[in-house]
TrEMBL record:
This is Peroxiredoxin. It comes from Thiohalophilus thiocyanatoxydans. SUPFAM superfamilies: Thioredoxin-like (SSF52833). Residues 26-166 form the Thioredoxin domain. InterPro entries: AhpC/TSA, Thioredoxin-like_sf, Thioredoxin_domain, Thioredoxin_ResA/DsbE_sf. One of its GO terms (molecular function) is antioxidant activity.
Length: 171
């Protein structure tokens, strides 16, 4: 093979690798959207105001078995890590009737803020979320560092959040 052919082959491998990385990690280090919303308590929240803390945004629905199954784990994580700086925001999908959301919130005693995404504005801001559960982990610098459609591996997410909280405490 000629040097030129080797160069082209290496270039193509690198190019395909970069394209694959972009394709399979679409939210790699994107900035979290600059959005504001009202939680069910009527309080206005701005995602950018939470910068400096890790934030887990979880899109869910009362009709989603996976969402319901992981809810106790999210509640436990919130109780354990919110005092250290974690924020969890539960975003109820537009198709979920508000009275169902409110009833589940009360029945499950969900401690973290719940937002009704009635017009799908929040879902669109996060890349047009359609499936539940869908999660976005945002680091203290406001970057999306993990995007997951489906149930979370709670141990891995917890470890990642703990690492963020520890580096935040040291820095």
């Amino acid at each position: 093979m000629k040097t030129r052919d080797i160069f082209i082959a290496v270039f193509m491998v690198l190019l395909l690798g970069a394209l694959a990385w972009l394709w399979f990690s679409p939210s790699g280090l994107q900035r979290a959207p600059d959005i504001s919303f009202k939680n069910v308590e009527g309080e206005t929240m701005e995602l950018q105001q939470l910068q400096g803390r890790p934030v887990l945004v979880t899109f869910w629905a009362t009709s989603c078995p996976g969402c319901i199954e992981e809810m106790p784990h999210l509640i436990e994580m919130y109780h354990d890590l919110a005092p250290r700086g974690l924020e969890i925001i539960g975003v109820a999908m537009a198709y979920d009737p508000p009275n169902h959301v409110m009833r589940m919130r009360e029945e499950r005693d969900i401690p973290y803020p719940i937002v009704l995404d009635i017009d799908s504005e929040i879902a669109r801001a996060f890349g047009d979320v359609k499936l539940t559960p869908t999660h976005f982990l945002i680091n203290p610098r406001g970057r999306i560092v993990h995007h997951k459609i489906g149930e979370l591996d709670m141990d891995k997410v917890r470890d990642r959040i703990l690492a963020m909280l520890e580096s935040r405490a040291q820095g």
